[in-house]
């Protein structure tokens, strides 16, 4: 039986993921513990809260709001990259997971979708209602609304990995097959 294009894509994605996993297995070994992963999730939460504040600031003073948001994006990038490296299964394809990991990942992704949809409604209503306000010009509204939408999309996009990083326990030191999670592969 011939593979469908989707099956070939999934197989290629799983191979690439496993290659990348093998490449990054020794990166940041001290940050793979439960406490350190939680610290990264908290840092990410602080960055997201500050991004939302920068969107509110942009409604009052667009230039400082944009500059603050740009600076926060520079902080976000290494924190998010580090969390992706140490959290293990946040973006893994189906072929690289066992049944338990697949169920956990799917639950986290379902939660992330709900978070994304719910949070993005807030700036959507802000943009709609703001278009009716005569005291705010369109550029200021678009600037602050864009920052708020981007912040909400980033929060939702990062939620699945953050949940998995927060809830996954430390690796079992007795499990010799778990070299990736111990950072010793």
TrEMBL record:
Membrane-spanning intervals of the chain: 39-60, 66-87, 108-129, 141-166
Taxonomic superkingdom: Bacteria
Keywords annotated in UniProt: Membrane, Transmembrane, Transmembrane helix
Protein name listed in UniProt: Uncharacterized protein
Organism: Rhodococcoides kroppenstedtii
């Amino acid at each position: 039986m011939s593979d469908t294009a989707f099956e070939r894509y999934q197989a290629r994605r799983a191979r690439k993921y496993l290659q990348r996993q093998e490449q990054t297995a020794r990166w940041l070994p001290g940050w793979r513990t439960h406490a350190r992963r939680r610290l990264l999730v908290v840092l990410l939460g602080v960055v997201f809260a500050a991004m939302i504040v920068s969107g509110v600031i942009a409604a009052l003073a667009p230039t400082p709001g944009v500059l603050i948001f740009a600076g926060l994006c520079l902080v976000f990038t290494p924190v998010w990259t580090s969390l992706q490296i140490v959290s293990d299964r946040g973006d893994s394809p189906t072929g690289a997971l066992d049944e338990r990991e697949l169920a956990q990942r799917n639950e986290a992704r379902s939660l992330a979708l709900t978070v994304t949809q719910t949070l993005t409604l807030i700036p959507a209503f802000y943009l709609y209602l703001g278009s009716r306000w005569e005291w705010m010009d369109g550029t200021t509204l678009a600037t602050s609304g864009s920052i708020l939408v981007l912040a909400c999309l980033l929060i939702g996009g990062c939620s699945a990995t953050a949940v998995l990083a927060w809830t996954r326990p430390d690796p079992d030191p007795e499990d010799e097959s778990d070299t990736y999670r111990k950072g010793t592969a």
